[in-house]
Specification:
The complex is a heterodimer. By secondary structure, chain A is an alpha/beta fold. Chain A is built from five helices and six strands. The longest helix of chain A is centred in the N-terminal third of the chain and has 13 residues. Chain A is globular and about 40 Å long. Chain B has a domain of about 60 residues. The chains are: A alpha/beta, B alpha/beta.
Chain lengths: ~160, ~120
């Protein structure tokens, strides 16, 4: 299977990103299980490529290039970011990892979502005065969402 | 000859949020659209060109907030059909609500719910 991972989001809303080391672990898990992984990063996210040195990384792709990259991809895993919306509107299979934002508000109808099962008083903190810093200055909305959860969900979507 | 009605679509949110507006256009391609958005126009233009949309879309030349409001007022006084698409909450909703007092041709998307589904519910008059 061919997976695309988009670990970024707008620089001024980094708290919308599932932790980068978890994305790295997810990419490794796909590879160990004989899947192909491509990492897609936006123009302001090139520094994240340092985490994915052994992977095929595409940085600052144009819309046409994104379309080409996504061709034949079985699943694209991303945060609640522009790429979620872009890949969804061109009818790709997308799994969105939600933390501080609300999937009931922004999830494209043809996309899949995953959120932490851990109960939280704050999640989603979007629209609140403490958006992005819901637990004493730190956003805790991704807490409890592990690599295995996302991995299993992605295989489940693809019925593997 | 292109006899499609012209509709002005306004969205003040980010580029990702604008995709829900483009989805609305895809689903309602019997109209010509004029989009007003503060996002980078080159980027919007390129985005539109990679999504298969079967109608004419033009973009307001303005990205500056003051000029955008002037453009909206111009379209109000020209009697154009105007839709403020979802997401439409916070300050942008307040502004849209205020502007809607000046014209009966303005439609406001609902505030709460999924942007894509809210836009699907919009009826064009």
């Amino acid at each position: 299977m061919k997976f695309i991972i988009c670990p970024g989001s707008a620089e001024n809303q980094k708290f919308k990103r599932w932790p980068i080391l978890k994305y790295l672990e997810l990419a490794e898990l796909y590879e160990i299980n004989q899947h192909t992984v491509t990492i897609v990063l936006g123009p302001e996210e090139h520094y994240l490529s340092n985490f994915f040195l052994k992977f095929n990384v595409v940085i600052s792709a144009s819309f046409d290039e994104l379309k080409q990259i996504s061709y034949n991809a079985n699943l694209i895993v991303c945060n609640d970011s522009f790429l979620l919306h872009y890949f969804s509107i061109i009818n790709c299979n997308v799994l969105a990892i939600y933390g501080p934002t609300d999937p009931d508000r922004t999830l494209p109808p043809n996309a899949f979502k995953i959120i932490s099962k851990k109960t939280s008083l704050y999640r989603p903190c979007w629209g609140k005065t403490y958006y992005g810093r819901c637990e004493n200055g730190r956003c805790s909305c991704f807490d409890g969402l592990d690599v295995q959860d996302v991995y299993k969900k992605s295989l489940n979507i693809l019925s593997i | 000859m292109n006899k499609k009605k012209d509709i002005v679509l306004i969205n003040f949110w980010g580029l990702g949020d604008l995709v829900a507006t483009l989805k609305f256009i895809k689903n309602n391609n019997n109209f010509n659209y004029y989009i007003i958005s503060p996002q980078n126009h080159n980027l919007i233009q390129k985005l539109i060109s990679t999504i298969s949309i079967n109608t004419t879309i033009s973009l307001s030349p303005y990205e500056n907030k003051t000029l955008i409001i002037m453009d909206i007022l111009k379209n109000i006084f020209l009697g154009k059909s105007i839709i403020f698409t979802a997401p439409l909450s916070g300050k942008s909703r307040k502004l849209a609500k205020f502007l809607s007092y000046f014209s009966k041709n303005i439609t406001l998307a609902k505030e709460k719910g999924n942007s894509y589904l809210i836009n699907e519910e919009i009826e064009i008059f």
